[in-house]
# Entry
Amino acid sequence: MFLKNAWYVAARSEEVNRGLLKRTMLKEDIVLYRTEAGLPVALENACPHRKLPLSMGCLKGDAVECGYHGLMFDPSGKCVAAPTQERIPPSARVKSYPAEERYGLVWVWMGDPAQADASSIYQVENYGKAGWGRTDGGVLDIKCHYLYITDNLLDPSHVAWVHKTSFFAPGTEGTPLETDLYEDGLVVSRWIYNQTPPDFYAPLLKFKGNCDRLQHYEVRTPSIAVNKSIFTPPGGGGDVNNLPEQSYVMVSYNFMTPVDENHTRYYWFQHRNTDPDDEALSARIHTGAVMAFNEDRVVLEAVHRGMAEKTTDNFNLGLDAGALRFRMLLDKMIDAECSAASPAPARRA
Ligand code: FES
Ligand SMILES: [Fe+2]
# Structure
């Protein structure tokens, strides 16, 4: 059900400190903390003696001490003290997950540790680059399967109905969509030409009147969505590599971490190509984004319930093509991972 050999966001950096933070990811219970040197650590959150969550214990230096009988585990998961025993029991060990920090987020590799490669963490273009403003996002807990969120983030059409007072503008209902496929995901996009800008963006643009608008909806495995909006004066749109000077670019980065089949933790932040130091503007954009995400949340939680409890058939529309393709790609990767993890049974002689 989940792709394991992948990096997922486990927490915002400021949530991970010298306390013990418990998290559930992909149905696995994890405890997060920092070493004295400040490095993030992720361990299985269950003591191998009686399965007391290690998050109920305490930190002693870089090791976690279980709150029941004092077994201690270092960041590699190895038991380093067993105060009631003469020697450390050989099976006393917890799983240790590779953990890294990027973009103000702590990322955890959920699969085979030997395959973890920090360079494969999603690369955020323009992060920390001069001239780019940042809306320091946040995190939402959404009561739905994570793939309903990736569906939504590959579906520019929903804007016309779900975000009527923010992102809707003429052209969002019917302009045809283009799909570009990649090895690890896809992009659904369209340029909408010479229309009024949406209410949310109009005050942010450096020009007045109509605009050309790009809606770029991109999802990469395992569940990373990049939502790019570009606005140019009419006649300036059509080529992202050749934008006129007054163009406004907003990129929303969305990292979905499945908690289980029914819950998702959704981390996000945004970049814009204007007013890098305008904190009041960042705060305004933040408020608008949260309002829009909550509009999505209401729909997605109801869709999750509706699909889970359906008593009649449902069907797909043309607008679902991108979402369905992403689901197929992910299914294939999960199947390949499962077959690699369970070798074929040995033949009898
Ligand atoms: S339950 Fe952890 S040491 Fe006993
Ligand atoms: Fe939305």
Q: What stands out?
A: Helices lie at 146-152, 159-162, 279-308, 321-341. The pocket of FE2/S2 (inorganic) cluster (ligand 1) is lined by residues 47, 49-50, 52, 66, 68-69, 71 (CB under 6 Å). The first strand starts at residue 7 and ends at 12. Residues 279-308 form the longest helix (30 residues).
